Amino acid sequence: MSPRRLAHDERGVADLAMSPRRPAHDERGFALLAVILVMTLLAVVVTEFAFSMRLEASMVRAYRDGVLARNLAEAGIQQAIREILSDANVHGLDESGQVAFYTVPAGSTALKALPLLQRTQVPLGAGAFSYRISDEEGRLNINGGAADRMQRLLTAIGVDKIERDSIVDAIEDWRDANDTTRANGAESDDYLKLPVPYRARNGNFQDTDELLQVKGITPEMYWGHDDKPPLADVLTARSRNTVNINTASAPNSIAIAASLAVPTPASTIIVASGSCSRMIRRFAGFCTPSPDPIGAASGITAGQPASSNFFAMIKSSLK
Predict the structure, then answer these.
(1) Residue 86 domain flag
(2) CATH of residue 170
(3) Residue 315 is assigned to a structural domain of this protein
(4) What is the pLDDT along the chain (319 residues), one digit of tens a residue?
(5) How many domains does the chain have?
(6) Which domain holds residue 179?
(7) 175 belongs to a structural domain
(8) Would you list the DSSP string of 129-183?
(9) Rounded to whole angstroms, how far apart are CA atoms 63 and 67?
(10) What's the pTM value of the predicted model, to 2 decimals?
């Protein structure tokens, strides 16, 4: 056999010997792709698991914070109730404008302030709460039905006569049980023509916020503007229809005094004269045994109470 033939045969044998190794090279490429795919899927699973854990941790924190806030709010309410149910028979405002509780023994004019509980940043467990007490009887009851009183109040906050007449009639139309429109008022037929229609309540106001639905009442009038006291701070829908002038804040007391047709507050002393109530903020000529200076039409008698039965607890903060 020639050397050339022999070399050719050896190359053929070598090719046959090497041919089975090609599938092994292909399998290694497939294995690499499989590993990359598995690692990608694993990364997705781990990321999803981590996201789920973070979401569950956030839910647990939100639940914990909700429970804490609920208990802090309940603690604030209970502490406010504890103050309100004290032995106080006179309620007024202290130097900071907070509702304060006083007692005057029978037959005496000596005013004794009861200790105030802490109302700001009261610690409780891992948190703290703050609150303030608002006397609803330091405001005028909008359900009192005295149109002249509302006229005087609107005059005191700078509303002109045309608007006053419209607002007073609209308030009475909102409260009465019929659908008969007063001369300057509005009933359901008028409100149903608005872009967002609604009906008049035809009953007493449940909340003073309803005033924003009454014809003529503007947000500036309700929330206050310039130096005028807001109606939201002067009116209430819950009281005995008497006014404890002691707890009317200084800016509001002038408007309230005007609506009651009594002089502007003169000082901060106690008055105990005849049948009059003991008052911390004195109204000159208001507390006298003379004929009622307010008038029977107002629905309020002279000798206004210096104590209150209706209070609101307002949350300031929960931390």
Answers:
(1) no
(2) 1.10.40.60
(3) no
(4) 555 555 555 555 455 455 555 555 566 677 778 888 888 888 888 888 888 888 888 898 889 888 888 888 898 889 988 888 888 888 887 777 788 888 887 777 777 888 888 888 888 888 888 888 888 888 888 888 678 888 888 888 888 899 999 999 999 999 999 989 999 999 999 999 999 999 999 999 999 999 999 999 999 999 987 777 788 888 888 887 777 777 776 555 666 666 665 554 443 333 333 333 333 333 333 333 333 332 222 333 344 556 677 777 676 666 6
(5) 1
(6) 159-224
(7) yes
(8) EEEEEEEGGGSEEGGG--HHHHHHHHHHTT--HHHHHHHHHHHHHHHSSS-PPPT
(9) 6
(10) 0.61
Q: In the β-sheet with 90-93, what is the strand arrangement from edge to edge?
A: 90-93, 99-103, 112-113
In a domain, 265, yes or no: no
Amino acid at 184: N
Q: Can you say whether the dihedral through the CA atoms of 223, 212, 238, 181 is positive or negative?
A: positive
